[in-house]
Design a protein that fits this description.
Keywords: Membrane, Transmembrane, Transmembrane helix. This protein is mainly α. The chain folds into 2 domains: 206 residues, Rhomboid-like (Rhomboid-like fold, Up-down Bundle); 51 residues, no CATH class. It has 12 helices and 4 strands. Strand 3 and strand 4 form a beta hairpin.
Length: 281
């Protein structure tokens, strides 16, 4: 029985994956950095907003290779004229991102997030360079769309409360997320292409079983030079599954903070093993 088949993963979000605040979480620090930069910009240059202007990605940067670092920094700048630009991005990241971070681990989550930012910025810059349009893009929405789509793909049957009152399955939220961007007016000031790049990247990452950790690449490189010998130990597999069942029940009943460090590491190893088997089958 796979993790996705257990009842409290299919019908409702387990308490261990509910949004919470922790200084051990990458999401907590991403929110702190985004809010800090927003406040610094308002305090340092309330009229000209030099900090935001410095971080934002400009269409003219395609002609300035030494400015391509902005394909990353634009994701940490938000409109100083609309605080809800920052608020909604950080709320979406906090609400759905914690489950994704718990699933992939904080460092892999950070890699996913930053790659989504850069891909969105690079795609936006290429489109504007090709079309000759001018403009500026800023905000974490592309990366947040990526995180939200990863949540939806991993937990499609979890019930989400839209606006806190409308129960909606995650897969349907995913339909709205994609459709809403596809039908958006291209003349609006919303970076639709950045959103869609984030969504597409999440789908590619999920369905191809990607992983950006160095350990994964080392093992793949070594595998090219070693004969592939698969040893299946049904007794060990049965014990691992029983232990995973016990830990999931514990997390469901007592919350994720009840897990010890060794138990967390076991769950990460077991999840990686399942994903690897799916890729090999």
């Amino acid at each position: 029985m796979g993790i996705q088949d257990r009842d409290y993963y299919t019908n409702d979000a387990p308490r261990g994956l509910a949004p919470s605040w922790s200084n051990r979480s990458v999401i907590s620090w991403l929110i702190i950095i985004n809010v800090a930069l927003y406040v610094i910009d308002i305090l340092v240059s309330p009229r000209t907003h030099d900090v935001t202007e410095f971080l934002a990605l400009h269409s003219s940067d395609s002609n300035l290779p030494w400015m391509l670092w902005r394909t990353l920094t634009y994701g940490f700048a938000h409109s100083p004229y609309n605080v809800f630009h920052l608020f909604w991005n950080m709320l979406g990241l906090w609400m759905l991102g914690r489950a994704v971070e718990e699933l992939y681990g904080k460092w892999e989550f950070l890699r996913i997030y930053l790659v989504a930012v850069v891909l969105g910025g690079a795609g936006w810059l290429l489109r504007h360079s090709w079309s000759g349009e001018t403009g500026v893009v800023l905000g974490a929405s592309g990366a947040v769309c990526c995180v939200e789509m990863l949540f939806i793909l991993n937990f499609p049957r979890v019930i989400l409360m839209i606006w806190g009152v409308i129960p909606t399955p995650a897969w349907l939220v995913g339909v709205f997320l994609v459709a809403g961007n596809l039908i958006q007016d291209s003349r609006s000031n919303i970076a639709i292409d950045v959103h869609l790049i984030g969504i597409a990247f999440a789908a590619v990452y999920f369905y191809l079983g990607l992983h950006f950790g160095l350990d994964r690449w080392r093992s793949r490189w070594k595998g090219l030079w070693r004969p592939k010998l698969k040893v299946h130990d049904p007794i060990s597999d049965s014990r691992d599954e029983e232990e995973m069942d016990r830990l999931l029940k514990k997390m469901h009943d007592q919350g994720q903070d009840s897990l010890t460090s060794s138990e967390r590491k076991f769950m990460e190893r077991y999840s990686r093993k399942l994903r690897q088997r799916r890729q090999e089958s």
